[in-house]
Amino acid sequence: MTHEPKTEFTKLFIGIAGMIGAGKSTLATALGEHLGIDVYYEPVADNEYLDDFYRDTARYAFPTQIYLLNRRFQQHQEIIWKGRSAVQDRTIYEDSIFAKMLVNLGLMDARDYRTYQQLFNHMSNFMCRPNVIVYLDVKPEASMRRIEARSRGVESGITLEYLDALYTGYQEFVEDISRYLPVIHVDYDRFHTAEEMATVIEREYLDHNFLRKVTRFDPTR
Which of 66, 108, 120, 218 is within CB 3.0–4.6 Å of 102 for a Cys-Cys bond? Predict the structure, then answer.
């Protein structure tokens, strides 16, 4: 997807982070259109491991994580090679949340997790960091309602316990990564549309370009 970005958003890399069903793809689309930048979506429709992962998570946790790591790294490289502004629906950094959670739930072997971490660390030497991460804060119960509403067959086995563990992982992730990267912390329920949110994110980014902490903001400001 090719756009002409606004002058102040040339070579800008935005990462959208958030729970399953948080609305990342919708916001990524809105930001792409609002700012005139490329959009990279999470590999879901063509993920050949996803059905197996939800059917037998313990067996397919490691290959699924490696598949996603590979695909997101591919997106990162494309963003670097093209040299254009882009927004990515779920960052490569978030994969570690899922991997760690799977270990904690006893669904991934600790040895596989170490291998995953080592591979990620090697890849990180060739990755570009986002200029800003937009975190969509959606609670586990809301995430479950949205998952049920969109009725993706492969997600039918997701439990509230799984989402609770995932949410805890996201809170730790945001606290940690905000020490190194600007994070705009969004309470999705405070906005009527993704377009409205995109407008506020644009303003927040321009006002706080060097922000290094989690931020909440008033959409009516």
Answer: 108
